[in-house]
Amino acid sequence: MTRTLAALSEYHIDFSLWQPHSPDSPSSQQFVAAIRRAASGLGFFYLHNSPLSDPTRRAKMFDLVHRFFALPIETRKQIDMAKSRHFRGFCQFGDETTLYKQDMRDQVDYGPYSESAFFTDPELLTKFPYLNLLGPNQFLDDEVLEGHAAIVTDWFNQSTETCRQLTTALEAALGVEKGRLLKFLDGEGGGVVDVCGQGALPYARMKTIRYPVGDIVDGIEREKGSEQGVGAHKDSGWMTLLSPSEVAGLEVQDFDGNWLPVEYIEGAIVFNFGQQVEYVTRGLFQAATHRVVSRVDAQETRFSVAWFALPALNVKMEPLEEAEIDGEVRNIWTSARQGQDIVCDVPKGDMFPKKEEEHGMVAWRTFLRSHKQVAEAWYPDAISK
Ligand SMILES: O=C(O)CCC(=O)C(=O)O
Ligand SMILES: [Fe+2]
């Protein structure tokens, strides 16, 4: 029988146990202990009862996603990503790559926007190229796609708050001081590189994704025999909150290199770490390797909504001191691994920061690498280097 993530009890966590105003209550502590165990293992788990699994919110979001992808390609291309120097908008089938190989999916990308954190000064953009990642989203008008901006914005806000709560619980799970991890998200407590006196520039991304079936999608031929929905990767940021549809395809790689299907479970979303958490926890909390397999003979289209927390763009990442971390975390880790190396299809630390660089540079490289069309249209100098 195939091993699945759903069958492993330690990878099911109930978010309703967490009481934000009473982090020391027995219920919150039960939550923290469960997080510690799951995070010290695969770091890829089902999160039950979070605001993102609220049935009304989820139904609205998936209805929006279905309506968007049912629009004619000309209408979808009104918000073509190539029009946005901020890497926002619709990215057509086959236009995105993972490890230089085409992904058999299309998607709409979103990010945060505020007028006060929007930079146009060419000198500043040359000095801090990651500032190009800040800017407006592309939304279709309500007459064309009712609720587009409102539904996405609500999802973004709920995800942001859920991520803050989870990050606070992670601090408790690691036994580090309160705010020790949140500072990477909001810059409170140092490490911020000054950009026009703006303070930290918090960041996150979101994608609504389709993995279509058939040999030809929007007039584009599927690469013969390719089953790469999205290739094996570790998310590059902080943490990911993923809401999949009922259709199968997502898989996570365990530490022996086996791929475990991650089935859809009603009322749950899927949580995983990005490489920046792996970096700051010195590998105690791993960014799990995962992929989506899009079978050539699949009968049903898979949809998903992925929200990615990133560290603030202008914050420098610094690993926690060994001595700060509760010894129990290392004990769980070493007793589970017993000295064995992790088998993994992705090069270790491919998105770790270089020394002394702020997170934005990692994010910037990730986007240039994944979205060639935008890079060629807007940043030919950056890719010719
Ligand atoms: O669509 C999915 O289920 C997973 C997507 C994913 O892993 C990603 O976009 O990073
Ligand atoms: Fe991912």
UniProtKB/TrEMBL annotation:
Species this protein is from: Rhizoclosmatium globosum
Name listed for the protein in its UniProt record: Clavaminate synthase-like protein
InterPro entries: DIOX_N, IPNS-like_FE2OG_OXY, IPNS-like_sf, Iron_ascorbate_oxido_reductase, Oxoglu/Fe-dep_dioxygenase_dom
GO molecular function: metal ion binding; oxidoreductase activity
Family: Belongs to the iron/ascorbate-dependent oxidoreductase family.
Fe2OG dioxygenase domain location: 202-311
Keywords: Iron, Metal-binding, Oxidoreductase
Matching SUPFAM superfamilies: Clavaminate synthase-like
